[in-house]
Amino acid sequence: MPILHCVAHRLEKGAGDQPLTLVAAETELPGSAVLDDLLARLNDAYHAKQKSWGRFADTTPEGRTTSPFPAELAAYLDGSRDFLALSRQIAERLTTLVDAHLSVSGHLLIAHARQGDAEHLLVALLHEREGFGVAEDMAIAPVRQLNLTQMSLAARINLGQWRSDSPSRQYLSWTHDRGGRKLAEGLAELLGAEEGIDATGETRTLLRAFSDFVEQEDLPEEQSREKTEALIDYASDQARRGEPITLEALSEVLDEQQPKAFFEHIRNADYGLSAEIPPDKRTLTQFRRFAGRAGGVSISFDSHLLGSSIEYDDTQDRLIIKQVPKQLREQLKRRQRN
């Protein structure tokens, strides 16, 4: 992952009720293998966070831009503003935001990096944690480490998608942890961002479309399980890389013999899904299939149906199916008529 520019500013919390102050870096961080590894791990940690996805808002109804940041970023990319100056402007605004919602110090890391053909700008507030190390004389010594998993706030912009002739609705993402709603809203306002897509809702709709597809195709249990695993593997891999789920690519993964089958199912049923969906990892991890066979009875269903269309009464060891599959319902009615 070639790092084009990177800087780290310090946000220092004073004693008592003293406000947070910015200790701005004078120079960019020099490139090194350690910095490459740090940014790679930071990206992995960011992809695992709960996020909102969207884009830069155009203008307010009065014609004003919602934030100066998009224009400043564009000026940097066009070569009329240097990276260090851009990073300081970001840091100054974030210092005010963080001081209003948090009471801890941290390091603000801002990086412009290239990953494959894509370029990204990553902004992340990192805190420190106490740790231990072994010195050269083999003595145990305390050390302070950057806590990569504890990102109070972070944002990532796909610069190529933003600057393309037809930008997507989700080239910008920012952290949205539980309990930090005000902080997330403040970060979005600072960036001039608006949500362009509901990652959780879109992922749930995608999984519902998949369940409908499996039921419609009346697939054997083994095939159904294989397709479920293929979907989860593909979507989870995209989530790890910070890339969206592409419906056409997913359709090909699910069935190499009929690569358009699932895509056509989605289009014909009109689920309202976007062509590209940012995967929600929490929703994906909950999507597994329960299956069991005993005494001539074989049952399998997607785990997310438990508690809605399927209930389990553990006191009587009884499974209640509220929505009987159409084909099974027709078979049962024919049996009753006979």
Task: Give a summary of the structure in a few sentences.
The chain is an alpha+beta fold and 338 residues long. The chain contains eleven helices and 14 strands.
Mean pLDDT, rounded to whole units? 84
Sheet with the most strands: spatial strand order: 2-1-4-5-6-7-3-8
Q: What structural class results from the helix and strand content?
A: alpha+beta
Q: Please tell me the total number of domains.
A: 2
Low-confidence stretches: none
Strands, count: 14
**Radius of gyration from CA coordinates:** 25 Å
Question: How would you describe the overall organization of this protein?
Answer:
Belongs to the YejK family. This is Nucleoid-associated protein. Keywords: Cytoplasm. The model has no long low-confidence stretch (mean pLDDT 84). The protein is built from 11 helices and 14 strands. Strands 2-1-4-5-6-7-3-8 form an 8-stranded antiparallel β-sheet. It has a two-stranded antiparallel sheet with strand order 9-10. The chain is an alpha+beta fold and 338 residues long. It has 2 domains: 195 residues, no CATH class; 89 residues, no CATH class.
List the helices and strands and how they pair.
Blueprint: E1 3-13, E2 20-23, H1 33-47, E3 51-56, H2 69-77, H3 83-101, E4 106-115, E5 118-134, E6 140-158, H4 159-163, E7 172-175, H5 181-191, E8 193-197, H6 199-217, H7 221-241, E9 245-246, H8 247-254, H9 261-269, E10 276-277, H10 281-285, E11 289-294, E12 297-302, E13 310-313, E14 318-321, H11 326-337
Antiparallel strand pairs: 1-2, 1-4, 3-7, 3-8, 4-5, 5-6, 6-7, 9-10, 11-12, 13-14
Family: Belongs to the YejK family.
Keywords: Cytoplasm
Main location: cytoplasm
